[in-house]
Write a structure and sequence with these properties.
FAD/NAD(P)-binding domain; two-stranded antiparallel ribbon; alpha/beta; 2 domains; 38% helix; 5 strands
Length: 180
C-alpha cells in the first residue's frame, strides 16, 4: 500500500537527531512529517537505552571544575586518538566543527531546553599516559538519555502549533518522490 503525504520537511528516523531536526523545523514554521520504524512508546531510537553521556568542550561545568579546555586541545586529543589519515578531509572537518561548536550547539542548546547535566565532568578514554583525552570532557545528562528523549519529545509536541506535525510510527520508507 502506498501513502502520499505532503510535507515541507520529511525527517526519516525518530532518534535524537530526527527529533531535534523536526523540532527545529517546526520552530521555523514548517510543516513536518517525522517517520519512524518503531512504536510511539519506543520513539527515541537507541537513546532510550543509552547512558546519556557526550563529549563536550569548554563548558561551564568544566570551568566550575577548573578544567581549562579549548577547541584546540580537544581537537588535538581527537586527532591523536582517532588516527585520521592525512587525506581524511571530511572526518577532519567534522572533528574541527564539533570541538568548535559543541558548547553552543549541544551544551547550550540542551540547557536552553531545560536539560540538566550531572555536576561532574567525567574522564573516559583517558590519555594521561598515551593517546586519548588529556582532560575530562564526558558530560552525563541528568536522568540519562531516556530523560533527554522524553524532554525533547515534549518540546516537539509543544512546538506543534496548528497541527503542522505528522508523526508516522511503524513506517518503513522505501522511496521518495518530490514534486517540482
Amino acid at each position: 500500500m502506498t501513502n502520499t503525504i505532503t510535507s515541507e520537511v520529511l525527517v526519516i528516523g525518530g532518534g535524537l537527531s530526527g527529533i531535534v531536526t523536526a523540532l527545529e523545523a517546526l520552530r521555523a514554521g514548517k510543516r513536518v512529517t517525522l517517520a519512524d520504524r518503531d512504536t510511539p512508546e519506543r520513539m527515541g531510537g537507541l537513546a532510550l537505552w543509552a547512558f546519556g553521556g557526550m563529549m563536550l568542550v569548554d563548558t561551564p561545568l568544566q570551568k566550575r571544575m577548573k578544567i581549562a579546555d579549548s577547541p584546540d586541545i580537544a581537537l588535538g586529543d581527537w586527532l591523536s586518538f582517532g588516527e585520521l589519515a592525512p587525506d581524511d578531509e571530511l572526518p577532519l572537518q567534522w572533528a574541527r566543527y564539533y570541538v568548535e561548536h559543541s558548547r553552543s550547539e549541544v551544551y547550550d542548546w540542551l540547557s536552553n531546553e531545560g536539560i540538566k547535566f550531572l555536576p561532574a565532568v567525567n574522564w573516559v578514554e583517558r590519555g594521561r599516559f598515551g593517546d586519548g583525552n588529556r582532560l575530562p570532557r564526558y558530560h552525563i545528562v541528568w536522568g540519562t538519555a531516556r530523560e533527554l528523549v522524553h524532554r525533547l519529545l515534549a518540546a516537539l509536541h509543544r512546538a506543534d502549533t496548528g497541527g503542522r506535525l505528522t508523526l508516522l510510527h511503524r513506517h518503513r520508507i522505501t522511496g521518495l518522490e518530490q514534486a517540482a
